[in-house]
Amino acid sequence: MYHPTKNFQIYQIFAANTNLGKTIFSTGLCRSSASKFKNLKKINNNNNNNNTNINTNINTKINTNINTKINNNNLNPNLNINTNVNHKTYYLKPIQTGYSESSDENFISCFLNSEMIVKTTTLFKYEKPLSPHLAVDKSLIPKDDDVLLATKNHITECAIDASLGGGTLFLETAGGVASPTMSGTLQSEFYRPLRLPTILIGDSNLGGISTTISSFESLRLRGYDIPIILLFDNSQYKNHTFLQNYFQKNFLNQNNNNGINNISIKTIPSPPPPPPSLNHSLNKNVDILQLKKYFGELDGEFNNILEILENWHNEKFNRLNEMAECSKDVVWWPFTQYEKIDKVNVIDSAYNDFMVIYDNDQKNQGGKKSKNDGIMKEMFDASSSWWTQGLGHGSSKLSLSASYAAGRYGHVLFPECIHEPALSLSQTLLKTVGNNWATRVFFSDNGSTAVEVALKMALQSACKRYFNDQDDEFQKIKILGLYGSYHGDTIGAMDACYPNPFNKLVTWYEPRGKWFQPPRILLKNNVYNLQIPFSNQTIQYPSLSSIFSPERSISDPVSLIYKNHIKETITNYIIEGNKFGALLFEPIVMGAGGMIFVDPLFQKLLVEFVREWDGWIKYWGDNRNYEKNDNDWKGLPIIFDEVFTGFWRLGQLSGANALGVKPDIATYAKLLTGGLIPLAVTLTSTSIFSTFLGKSKVDSLLHGHSYTAHPIGCMVANTSLEEYENLIKVSNDWKIGRENWNVNKENQFWSYSSEISSTIINQLSNNSDDISILARPLGNVIYLMTSMISNIESIRKMEEKILNCLNKNL
Fold first, then answer.
1. Domains of the chain
2. Phi, psi angles (nearest 5°) of residue 561
3. What tens digit of pLDDT does each residue of 243-264 get?
């Protein structure tokens, strides 16, 4: 438990630059906290030695069950920290350079009064008084994960230590906001997984307004809460006066929730000249005495600062405690039956694959549940937030891209206009997912509307070739698709699907298609089973690669079964009088339909038949009055709904790549923007585009929305696609994942009854072991989805937990 609780406050201290007095402010805050909550029962033993240095080595074994340990300790956030004499104070310096001549924890210990008990700790110490990336021995650079884990571990130990009466911990960073760690990672980036409430030490010197505001924006951009900015009073430059006006104008909001997002600006007098290194303190007693006097005179100022922090802390947790119930009264959630809401997940923040969820369903010391006994719990986002997360939550690269586009453009009109993000994205898409088939990119806002656009493109093209638009039958054009498909919640996208729970109760829904029962692939007991519904056969395959083998169309006996079934079915549909304008399906995986894995050979042969069959012209004729060429779409326009499968979801650039077939039209969304912002595109060929060329505006594609090709989304999408390419080239986890795709594990079993799905969901979410999983079912299907940045360790932990849950319930 390294996140704050109501009873355990944590603040990290950043500065706008080096030498701005972080340790001065840390000392004052520690003194105030230790004095305000001092233990009246003084124990004259070794506990009075508050220099509890921990010389952490990166090879130190970390207690991986630390979360379990903290949960089993009866933290009681209901205790009144303003009067609790057992409240403890901690100071943590994860990275210290210039040690031991310059030791911030020793400085703090030196200026504490005898009755003040502060447990101080330094984790990683380096002798050279340089930036950490320069001070470290190049052959012994610790990994960021090891440094962060040591930091988390120590915070957790402090939380356990303070479980009786609560506590306050101050974590002091090294250097400035953008100063690097030993590995070179910026500290603002390095500490982001913790997202601790931040005290920013501003710069009171000439130029300090700029560095302070820039540092604030750098932290804010990464999602840090900054309740207060502290700086020294400088009567010459009066930076604090400008900063107070600036932040009051731009960030003070009287209408927000109890001022949680408001930012306070406080100053203290500058200290006397700092004492020299403590190694020479015997010769500098006068300076030390002056500084002790300075701190003593400022205890009242720091008490006021601490009170501001406590009020902010309490207001935040009060808000967290009420959010679940308040939301039930004002929010209308999608796909949610309000009569059956069991629990509302209050999301405080998210980073990479994990969401930090406030859980107030805890028991206090009396064994009773209390709304105030909440803790922050990290949970793996196993739905990838409805399949959107490609680069994880809280990506600073995506945030920077979004901010740049917002600052440069805001939003601008798109029809007959162009801006660099949209042009660059269009060119990139045509070179990647649209390579060698697409020539045009149409922008929309989400996957469902992208499908609507695709249907308009396809149906208009088919009608122009085969049917008279004055004919009554023109309004009865249907699509060919797959049973179990789902393409979105707008009317046209729903009509393109067989009746299902998503659409059958919608008043205007009218099924406008004919749907094949698709052969599906199931993995059970280490064997890939191909179930063919129209022949009542089940055929087994030894590996996934054998299913995707291009030789199957020639050597696999099911190829002939598929061809005969497809031909017979479509012929019968046409004889019955049906008229079709498109073939629409999701390549390989039908996502929202229940994560149905369709035999790629069936889809490939279906596309080939639709394109090659001469029955379309035989039964309907051909209205083309121009010279036909090989680039014309053939048979029916083929639409691939790649909203789910596009951009490496299946380990390849697109579902079309995995299928080995190119569409005439394809839709993309979800991973397009890395999971940050809505944006969708529909790609198509010149042949389809030409359908809409004419002399009248009504001949054009009449579809659009106000935020078409919004620069922010386009800019973020460009960055996302670049990051995907980089991951493929350099990510070791990607390489390992690909190598293990066909590795069979013992006792694999992926089938269960729907009656136990809710039980499994609940068991996955508990935090009694190494990982908690936030999963969301699709009907009777529980699915777990990782992002492109998921690490192998987290995946293996999830797999183990899933298997344990299944073994308990099956």
1. 8-40+47-330 (3.40.50.300), 338-391+734-809 (3.90.1150.10), 414-515+564-706+713-718 (3.40.640.10)
2. -60, -45
3. 999 998 888 765 555 556 689 9
